[in-house]
Prior knowledge:
Layout: E1 4-9, H1 21-30, E2 35-40, H2 46-56, E3 61-66, H3 68-78, E4 85-89, H4 95-99, H5 106-111, E5 117-126, E6 129-131, E7 134-138, H6 139-149, H7 155-168, E8 172-178, E9 182-187, E10 189-193, E11 215-220, H8 228-236, E12 246-251, E13 253-257, E14 263-268, E15 271-276, E16 279-292
Parallel strand pairs: 1-2, 1-3, 3-4
Antiparallel strand pairs: 5-6, 5-16, 7-10, 7-14, 8-9, 8-13, 10-11, 11-12, 13-16, 14-15
Helix pairs in contact: 2-3, 6-7
Bound molecules: adenosine-5'-triphosphate.
Amino acid sequence: MLRHLLFVLNPISGDIDKSSLEDEVALFCSERGREAKFYHTTGEDDLEKLQQHLQHHRYDAVFAAGGDGTVSLVAAALAGTQVPLGILPLGSGNGLSKDLGIPQEQAEALHLLWDHHIRAIDTLRVGTTFCAHLADLGFNALVVERFCSGDTRGPGAYVRIALQEYLNYEPATYRIVTDRETFEGPAFMVTVANANTFGSNVVINPDSQLDDGEFEICLIEPFPGTAALGILYQLYTENFDESVYTKRLRCRRATLEVPGQKEALVQVDGEPLQMTLPVEVTIQPRSLRMLLPRQS
Ligand SMILES: Nc1ncnc2c1ncn2[C@@H]1O[C@H](COP(=O)(O)OP(=O)(O)OP(=O)(O)O)[C@@H](O)[C@H]1O
């Protein structure tokens, strides 16, 4: 039974007021014979601090109470251990929790404490950074960086920035070498996908499995403006492969280069990072135990 629980809480995620959350969760748990402890992220060295905390305290499960960045942080701290990760989705996108079929409603997500299925999923390392969900280079990484450095949140701000950037965007040329094939050419966007769906419900990698020991590199090649709406439609209707401008490389290992460039902007689980090239991507099969609803 999962008795001793830690909730890692991001006070700022999703612009959601969490002032009563601790009391509600603590009461919910104590009424059911569970003990809830809380850990607040600060935005500074959170991974090192959380890892140290977990070395000195024993929990039966740890919940990430925040958005994709918080889930990724807790996942990085738990990967390779036996302690399962639960998610209380409290971000703006909540991509990984949606991909895993985790209820988006608080009481239902907490219900997993006593009625759950534990599934070990693969995780990725992109350069030296842990990745549980999706990473990308190119257009989306640029938009995410602009979004994170701006002061308006929410889907409206993302779309506004995307439209502004799209007009002048110059796709880079990539050289991608996997354990199976090599791709060389320009791309609008290169997504390294363990999972299927962005928090915005864009399905970049349909029908992929989170525990098959493989990941996908999903490429959108440069396209004329007249094709943009069609590609967007395909992304929202799980038809990524239907376009002449899309391509997927399935692999266990990959090296990503941008010839002539020493660094690139890479978005990893929602965080924009400047990375030294080439970027190596590796997979750690079934390295993260997740608390999931029984049917998923
Ligand atoms: N106490 C804090 N103060 C300021 N920033 C914080 C704090 N705790 C965490 N952060 C920052 O919050 C970001 C992660 O936010 P998270 O992804 O959980 O929420 P979100 O961005 O609102 O949701 P989503 O990723 O689902 O869109 C990280 O950049 C992290 O450094």
